[in-house]
């Protein structure tokens, strides 16, 4: 069985993330979306909330599983008994960082390969940080994230508007 892990913060999940999830899920028998709980960051959503949101937006993908994790991504990939780690690339700046991480991971786990998928051009500009900034200032984020995610972000950022 070919199994891959796509790790990330997904705070919030965007159409760019979903593009990578759909495309990588088509390459393997099982894709595990790993939701990182990073204690060095102050996320908008808790890891449990992010898992719940991802479960909702991937419910039509039968070979996708969603799990929270802490620690190193490569350790989570090993724990999942996966052969591949999936990473999305938006720009050359992503590649520099991701190549270093892939090489480091290869030293720590020589039997696990990193698969890079370039983001579809329509999402190349998109980041979770941008979505949060636009939402914070009241901008329309419906072209960046699914409608359920729009609602969750607005409820979290502007609870007075419920």
TrEMBL record:
Catalytic activity: (R)-4'-phosphopantetheine + ATP + H(+) = 3'-dephospho-CoA + diphosphate
Binding site residues for substrate: 9, 41, 73, 87
Binding of ATP, residues: 9-10, 17, 88-90, 98, 123-129
GO cellular component: cytoplasm
Record keywords: ATP-binding, Coenzyme A biosynthesis, Cytoplasm, Magnesium, Nucleotide-binding, Nucleotidyltransferase, Transferase
Superkingdom field: Bacteria
Record site: Transition state stabilizer: 17
UniProt-annotated location(s): Cytoplasm
Cofactor: Mg(2+)
Pathway info: Cofactor biosynthesis; coenzyme A biosynthesis; CoA from (R)-pantothenate: step 4/5
Listed EC numbers: 2.7.7.3
EC class name: transferase
PANTHER family recorded: PHOSPHOPANTETHEINE ADENYLYLTRANSFERASE
Family per similarity comment: Belongs to the bacterial CoaD family.
Record's protein name: Phosphopantetheine adenylyltransferase
Organism: Marvinbryantia formatexigens DSM 14469
């Amino acid at each position: 069985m070919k199994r891959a892990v796509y790790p990330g913060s997904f705070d919030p999940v965007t159409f760019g993330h979903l593009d990578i999830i759909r495309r990588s899920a088509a390459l393997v028998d099982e894709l595990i979306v790993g939701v990182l709980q990073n204690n060095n960051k102050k996320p908008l959503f808790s890891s449990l909330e992010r898992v719940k949101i991802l479960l909702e937006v991937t419910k039509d993908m039968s070979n996708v599983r969603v799990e929270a994790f802490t620690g190193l991504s490569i350790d989570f990939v090993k724990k999942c008994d996966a052969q591949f780690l999936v990473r999305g690339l938006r720009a050359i700046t992503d590649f520099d960082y991701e190549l270093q991480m892939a090489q480091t991971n290869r030293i720590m786990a020589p039997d696990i390969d990193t698969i890079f998928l370039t983001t579809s051009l329509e999402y190349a500009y998109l980041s979770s940080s941008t979505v949060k900034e636009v939402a914070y200032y009241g901008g329309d984020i419906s072209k960046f994230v699914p409608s359920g995610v729009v609602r969750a972000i607005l409820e979290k950022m502007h609870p007075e508007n419920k």
